[in-house]
Design brief:
739 residues; alpha/beta; TIM Barrel; Rossmann fold; Immunoglobulin-like; 6-stranded mixed sheet; 5-stranded parallel sheet; 29% helix; disordered N terminus; binds alpha-D-glucopyranose
Length: 739
């Protein structure tokens, strides 16, 4: 498998032509020029200083150049003033949009809509490339099962199948125009690998994943992204089993190059090569350089160890110049494939034409709509009927917070373009509703006095309905922003209770970068929409959902724990030898002085039980969907056949709506134990009121393969359960057997 290649003969010819151009160029490069290509720096100093370094061939890539005119200036220094005219590769973290900001990736995953995600990535690429960006450090593919970890916000959640689909869609979108299309940006599959399992949900912390866990859970999204053509890979900060990824030869060479046949480029994360000294994996920066190049790192982001030591290491015979040549080949291949040698400059007038277009904003709005998850709707309060209301109070610190609404990693998003829920409801209903507004708290962590809360209750009682927007400020999630307690911050729980005391219907919208532990807050709201930082157009999307112009279809991409202490809690867990039955005595039911026994005990927490607050795949609608028992075309299959599964889905309600139909399997007995359920496919299905449809899935038996006791990937014979359901805990199963 060679990444970035398509099967067509013309593509092969192009690749051969590129390889010839690489060989020819490499043959003329000095060792200093080769090392210069491996050096990635962020914008620094004056333009003159930077141009001088570039013209000396000392820099191969720059990140965080944000002015299109500067990009051309710096590129001119590379192309017209350096000896060999090798263009720069300009990079940026375009994680969920460039100017037009889409929901954070965790929210995008809640759409279960790869086509929409691909469209969003394409829009991001068109906007970012107009600013001179040709390489984005996205998609982030870290399987994230610990919501204490702030970077879960950038992930597609806990499931490999969903993350694979989201990641591949983003790669297609970023690189969609064809690598040498000026609107394409090279994708970057990150963080390779296992970073989401950072111990304690504390960023940069160690992970302890076995090879079997890596191969069955954490690596598949990367394999899928590379098979979709991702042109680059970024190494992760964590040490796994004591080996930092940036120095892990098994990972970066034995697996990535030799087993997967990858021919793209590997970049470190920021200073992660130098940090191998801090890890205690390298004795000094010279040792770090030696270990990084030996492991298979091509480009050094911001640690300077390659620039400082590679030449001397090669002259000392400790590094073979061929290793450097291989790294430079991989870097040049990306630059050739992007067309940078032939078209290094950008049209600086383009950005004004391609950003914030109606189409871009409409796509962001649709993504925000589909990313919101309806978690509670007592008495079918939602959707609100504006014709039956005279007044609505819009309240809470996130009701009109343009920057917070964008979420983490929005370097280039402009809050001035954010449409907040307050702005949206005023624009759409200001002519027929009395709309009050009270943020109550200036920000989500602010403590409120009893007097402030009482005053809010009094104020709220004067309206027909309360729309409360709370959650997290954007800075409370993202890189290095991890939490040891996931309860609502500040006085937001008290604010919900104060709203409840008004006696009026309460709709709560939570904007956050992660699941929060809201179990005790649910009783204080009639309806709850969970909107993972919904981006530029989150306001109109949420107001449309609240008033029924749109119907919620989002499903949770990650399990919601009852309490922080329950973590890790995720749906694809092992059965264990003593699974919870659901009949366990919880702490309040446990008699004082009860005798200790180990008979009949099961795996649960006395003070939290076993199940989550909301399971993976869960989400309500404004209608109800009924699933018949799944049907299979037969009961016995060989490992090379395809399971044809179907299920009748019925919309039992009064509204047309979209359901994310999910297909799960369970391998009952394996050479190693298998999860109680695994998502293997999903489909968005829209049905009119009363409509029924047979939803069909084609599941190649090969998708049942896993790395078992002998560490070989294979489909093991035996019995399997198959569900087609609306979430990871519901549905009836059908049995089939692999012979
Ligand atoms: C950061 C992040 C990485 C990002 C890179 C460049 O530390 O870990 O995801 O792409 O540095 O900003």
């Amino acid at each position: 498998m060679m990444a970035c290649q398509t099967d067509s003969a013309s593509s092969d010819a192009t690749d051969r032509q590129i390889e010839n151009r690489i060989d020819e160029l490499l043959s003329r490069m000095t060792i200093e020029e080769k090392i210069g290509q491996t050096n990635q720096l962020t914008l620094y100093g004056t333009t003159e200083e930077l141009c001088a370094a570039i013209s000396r061939g000392e820099i191969g890539s720059l990140l965080n150049v944000i002015d299109p005119a500067d990009v051309n200036t710096l590129q001119r220094a590379a192309v017209e003033q350096s000896r060999l005219g090798i263009p720069l590769l300009i990079a940026r973290d375009v994680i969920h949009g460039y100017r037009t900001v889409f929901p954070i990736p965790l929210g995008q995953a809640a759409t279960f809509d790869p086509e929409l995600i691909e469209q969003g990535a394409r829009i991001a690429a068109v906007e970012a490339s107009a600013a001179g960006v040709r390489w984005t450090f996205s998609p982030m593919l870290d399987i994230s099962r610990d919501p204490r970890w702030g970077r879960i916000a950038e992930s597609s959640g806990e499931d490999p199948c969903l993350t694979e689909a989201m990641g591949a869609a983003m790669v297609r979108g970023y690189q969609g125009g064809g690598a040498d299309d000026p609107t394409s940006v090279a994708a970057c599959a990150k963080h390779f690998v296992g970073y989401g399992a950072s111990e304690g949900g504390r960023d940069y912390n160690s992970t302890s994943l076995t090879e079997r866990q890596l191969r069955n859970i954490y690596l598949p999204p990367f394999r899928s992204a590379l098979q979709s053509g991702a042109m680059t890979v970024m190494t992760s900060f964590n040490d796994n089993d004591g080996i930092p990824s940036t120095g892990n030869k098994w990972l970066l060479t034995d697996l990535l190059r030799n087993e997967w046949g990858y021919d793209g480029m590997v970049v470190t994360d920021w200073n992660s090569a130098g940090e191998m000294v801090t890890h205690g994996f390298a004795a000094d920066t010279r040792d770090a350089a030696r270990k990084a190049i030996a492991a298979g790192v091509d480009m050094d982001m911001m640690s300077h160890v390659y620039a400082q030591h590679l030449k001397e290491l090669i002259e000392a015979g400790e590094v073979d110049e061929k290793q450097l040549d291989d790294a430079v080949r991989n870097i040049l291949r990306v630059k050739f494939r992007l067309g940078l040698f032939d078209n290094p400059y950008i049209d600086t007038a383009r950005i004004a034409r391609v950003t914030y277009t109606e189409e871009n904003l409409a796509a962001a709005r649709r993504c925000a709509e589909e990313s919101a998850v309806l978690l509670r709707n007592e008495g079918d309060l939602l959707p609100l009927d504006a014709s039956k209301l005279r007044s609505v109070l819009v309240a809470g610190p996130l009701a009109d917070a343009p920057a917070e609404q964008l979420g983490t990693w929005t370097f280039d998003g402009e809050p001035s373009h954010t449409v907040t829920p307050l702005a949206a409801i005023r624009a759409q209903y200001g002519d027929r509703l009395r709309i009050g507004f009270d943020a109550v708290a200036d920000y989500s962590r602010q403590r409120l006095s009893p007097a402030q809360l009482a005053a809010f209750t009094t104020e709220a009682s004067r309206y027909d309905a309360i729309l409360l927007f709370i959650g997290e400020e954007a800075i409370l999630s993202g890189e290095a922003h991890c939490l040891a307690d996931l309860d609502l911050k500040g006085s937001q729980s008290e604010l919900m209770a104060a709203a409840r005391r008004s006696g009026k219907p309460v709709v709560t919208v939570i904007m956050a970068g992660r699941p929060l532990t809201i179990a005790r807050d649910l009783a204080n709201t009639d309806a709850l929409l969970y909107a993972f930082h919904p981006g530029t157009m989150g306001g109109p999307a949420l107001i449309d959902l609240i008033f029924g112009r749109a119907v919620p279809s989002g499903k949770l991409p990650v399990t919601f724990p009852v309490t922080t202490g329950q973590i890790p809690v995720y749906y694809a867990h092992h059965m264990t030898g003593r699974p919870a039955t659901g009949n366990e005595l919880l702490i309040d039911q446990t008699p004082v002085g009860a005798g200790q026994t180990s008979l009949g005990c099961t795996s649960y927490h006395l003070d939290a039980g076993f199940g989550p607050l909301f399971p993976f795949g869960y989400g309500l609608s404004y209608t109800t969907f009924a699933y018949d028992t799944p049907q299979l075309d037969k009961s016995f299959y060989t490992a090379d056949e395809t399971i044809h599964a179907s299920c009748r889905l019925t919309n039992n309600g009064k509204r047309a709506a979209t359901e994310v139909v999910q297909l799960y399997i369970r391998d009952r007995v394996g050479s190693t134990v298998r999860p109680v359920r695994e998502l293997k496919d999903f489909r968005r299905v829209t049905l009119r009121p009363g409509e029924s449809r047979i939803v069909e899935f084609e599941l190649p038996a090969d998708r049942l393969a896993f790395w078992g006791l002998d560490m070989q990937r294979k489909v093991e014979p035996g019995e399997f359960d198959l569900w087609i359901a609306g979430d990871s805990q519901s549905g009836t199963s059908t049995l089939f057997t692999i012979q």
